[in-house]
Amino acid sequence: MQLGAEQDGVSLASGYPNQRVLEVLSSLSYRTGELTRYLQEVAQGVSELIGLDWSTITLCRDGFERVLASTIDLGESADLVYSLHGTLTGTVIATRTSLVVEDTNTCTDYGEAPAGYQAYLGVPLRTPVGEIIGTICSFQRQPRHFSAAEVRLAEIFAERAATAIDNYQLYQQQQQMNQQLQVEIEERRATEKQLRESEERLRQIAENMHQALWMYSHDGKPIYISPAFEQIWQQPCESWYADPQIWRDTIHPEDRERVYAAFERSREFSEEYRIVRPDGSVRIVFDRAFPIRDAAGQIYRLAGVAEDITDRKQAQQEMVKAIASLAEVGELAATIVHELRNPLTTVLMGLNAFKRMDLPPTAKERLDLSLDEAERIRHLLNEILLYAKPQVLQFAQLELNSFIAEILPSLRTMPSAMRRRIEFFPAPSPIAILGDKNKLKQIFINLVDNACEAVKDDEVISWQVELEETAERVRIQICNGGDPIPPEVLPKLTKPFYTTKPSGTGLGLAIVKRIVEAHRGEFAIASNAAAGTIVSVQLPVVDYSRNT
Q1: Structure pTM?
Q2: Can you list the domains of the chain with their CATH numbers?
Q3: What does the DSSP assignment read for 219-261?
Q4: Averaged over 266-284, what is the pLDDT?
């Protein structure tokens, strides 16, 4: 029996073919959402390299464990939850260290083994912050001795499994955050829709003269009060004719002095003020007035149009709240990224320092793997920061054909485009747009790079610009003849953190879509076996009547 096997002087692969250990480690390729398969590969790797009859990976919480992966088929029992009390796994969790029992029949101090198994090797799953979340448990039907190298090898695989489980849990938290963000975005869209509908209603009212129209003589007597006043003020029009000063009493006390002064000047004004109805409710009114002059230029009447804008103001306030909420989420994401980048930079500096040292080949292999993973994390953090930042654009007028022709040579030198042909088909006549030059360049670099990666050497990428029939918008299409994208995948491509690439971040197309929408444009992807994959960007043109 060994509790916490000695590690001093034990190399990664003592007693094993170095190449085979590294092959197994290198074959472990975890991607978000594939936790079960990845853990199964880890369990298989432990059993294969150490030569075990059975290995499992368990998740342990609150005195119970659940099997996440097993090298033998557990059938219906795979979904059961087991108590840790009195088990060998319970000892590993309690002591937070590796446990070796060469024969469980003769050594029963550390718990029971499953029926039919005698030798036991248990290793805790420890997260980067030191939390023990489960175990890798391995069993042999016959008694056997486990060397320190074998224990260390199992611990290496346990590190991988613990990191994968921890990352998966972080991914689930990120998904919840994304869902919350999506709800807030939908609420913002609903608010914007409500505002547009409210503005449309007000426009229709204006066109049909349903606003509250009024006209007063130069001495302050009402000449005409429209029926719409009854809807806004909740008072009959007759009361206004009977008492010309009644309107003064309806104005909110805090706004009276300002409105009195504007009205008594008897000239053009626009005022927003509150009124108090007979039932005590408060409404916001926007009142526009203009003087009517006689032939001599003297003001003899004052006319105006009053609108109840309470609903519109409330909708604006709701939209401001929604935008502020989105900004807070983006700021939080940016803060988290900044907090992670600093320690990540320190880690990279340390790893690069080790790279200058004379290390054994196996250590160099592990160091290279660590550097690659750290660089991938840094790239992901940069893209998250770019996605979280509001798209602040520097608009300038651009002629689209010339702009694409200008950036095309540099795009053809990208590594992905070196052995592909990019053919550009400009519009027959110049097309002017308002856009941010750097942001648009970022869009086209991303889309052309994706198109090049989708095809084989010497194949063609088609890039076309054409004016739509209405001449109000221009369509830029980038087409590749690679394998079609499955229909069920297409809607997911612009969602954050969804990717079909082994080393992708899932933010490239999400950022492209945000930039396009910030230009008041539309972004779409279509794919089929006949036409290939067509990525379309639609943008409004400048003074499109000149381009017809």
Answers
A1: 0.35
A2: 2-172 (3.30.450.40), 209-308 (3.30.450.20), 317-388 (1.10.287), 396-547 (3.30.565.10)
A3: TS-EEEE-THHHHHH-S-HHHHHH-TTHHHHHB-TTTHHHHHH
A4: 82
